[in-house]
Amino acid sequence: MNTNTHRVSSGGSALAAILSLAALVVVVVVVAAALLLGAGYVAFVLLDLSGIPSTGNWMGRL
Hints:
There is one protein chain. The chain contains 2 helices and no strands. The N and C termini lie far apart (about 65 Å). Helix 1 (about 1-50) packs across helix 2 (about 55-60). By secondary structure, the protein is mostly helical. The protein has a domain at about 25-60. The longest helix has about 50 residues, at about 1-50. Helix content is about 95%, strand content about 0%. Keywords: Membrane, Transmembrane, Transmembrane helix.
């Protein structure tokens, strides 16, 4: 009985570890995407404010 309960508990902890790892990966991907989008938006706004014509035209086409 002890070996059976130990196997079940280890299997449960392995499943929990896999789920927590998957959740961590999802969080990291979402945060990285948000940072990239935010940095890209800030860069385009700063370039637009600095008066670079090509960026101004690109912003105007949106």
